[in-house]
Specification:
The chain is α/β, with parallel strands linked by helices and 310 residues long. It is 18% helix and 23% strand. The structure holds D-malate, manganese (II) ion and zinc ion (ZN).
């Protein structure tokens, strides 16, 4: 299987348009060692390498058009109107993960979108993208429904990939009736297993708490591509850019007791990569002590255009 990182930043991207924190300002002025990042989304294909690959997008960020332009492989040019995007899986209904759908409205086929019922509800009410799209290409909704805390599916065209969605503890968006009343299915994590190579990816750009099931799934994966939003829980408060803690937003910080570094350190098998990095996070500065600490722990930081083969 082939994984292409379309975007690796959290909501707002890096640098964020209205932010002059030391990271955003430093990147603009060229005084920070680092690179710009668009909002997180990944594309996955069977890895057939036959020039006829189908890609599935996991989340669609508002930066999608730029991301697709930077990724020529996803435009095979077999006909006047063409795309190698076969389907879309949404992990939640947040703005940074869904509004790219509007950029796909010229699709000649209804968009085949896999998501849970709570996400479908948000996308037809508080953030009614599916309703808007019903006036354009239309949405072919494929419901993700859990049985025994998981949902298995195969996407036509990439039969070697076995998808499993799991409910996760993170946060529904502010316009959701579930914002302060979490429901199963507000957020999911994905395991994608290639039945040819037997290798598994775990993907979760929003991970608030890591329960036993999630821990076991991560341990059993060959690569974990997980929530790298914040270094510290009070990072945005310290910088004076927000009054919110990372955990209030459903994001486990990397440092501190019980944080992501500690969790990842307990795992031997998987390659460890952080994604959905907020522009305030010191790890975006490649010369920072925090970034060096990640390197010491063998933890990588996803970047736009990164490719992973499993
Ligand atoms: C989040 O990950 O918490 C949200 O994307 C934040 C946002 O959209 O502003
Ligand atoms: Mn986000
Ligand atoms: Zn910033």
């Amino acid at each position: 299987m082939k994984i292409h990182i379309l975007g690796s930043a959290a909501g707002g991207g890096f640098p964020q348009w209205n932010c002059n924190c030391s990271n955003c300002d430093g990147l603009r002025k060229g005084s920070l060692r680092g690179q710009a990042r668009t909002q997180s989304s990944i594309a996955i294909s069977s890895g057939a390498n036959d020039g006829n690959d189908h890609w599935t997008l996991c989340n669609t960020s508002p930066d999608l058009l730029q991301q697709l332009r930077n990724f020529p492989e996803i435009q095979p040019a077999r006909s006047l109107r063409d795309t190698a995007i076969r389907s879309i899986v949404l992990l939640d209904s947040q703005i940074d993960h869904t509004t790219g759908l509007l950029m796909l409205r010229e699709s000649t086929q209804p968009l085949r979108i896999y998501c849970t019922e709570p996400v479908y509800e948000d996308l037809t009410t508080g953030n009614p993208l599916f309703k808007v799209l019903s006036h354009y290409c239309k949405v072919d909704w494929q419901a993700i429904r859990f049985q025994n805390d998981q949902c298995n599916f195969v996407i036509p065209g990439s039969e070697n990939l076995k998808w499993t969605a799991y409910p996760l503890s993170s946060k529904a968006p502010p316009y959701s009736p579930h914002r302060n009343d979490a429901h199963v299915g507000d957020n999911i994590g994905l395991v994608i297993e290639d039945s040819l190579t037997k290798r598994k990816l775990f993907y979760s750009p929003g991970l608030g708490k890591i329960d036993d099931q999630t821990l076991q799934i991560m341990n059993d994966s060959d690569c974990v591509l997980v929530d790298g939003t914040f270094w510290r829980d009070d990072e945005m408060i310290r910088l004076g850019v927000s009054k919110k803690y990372g955990r209030d937003l459903g994001h486990l910080p990397q440092s501190e007791k019980g944080g992501m570094i500690e969790v990842l350190n307990s795992m031997k098998k998987p390659r460890k990569i952080l994604i959905h990095i907020n522009n305030t996070n010191p790890i975006l500065n490649e010369a920072s002590d925090e970034r060096k600490e990640l390197v010491r722990h063998g933890i990588e930081v996803a970047f736009d255009g990164m490719e992973i083969i499993l």
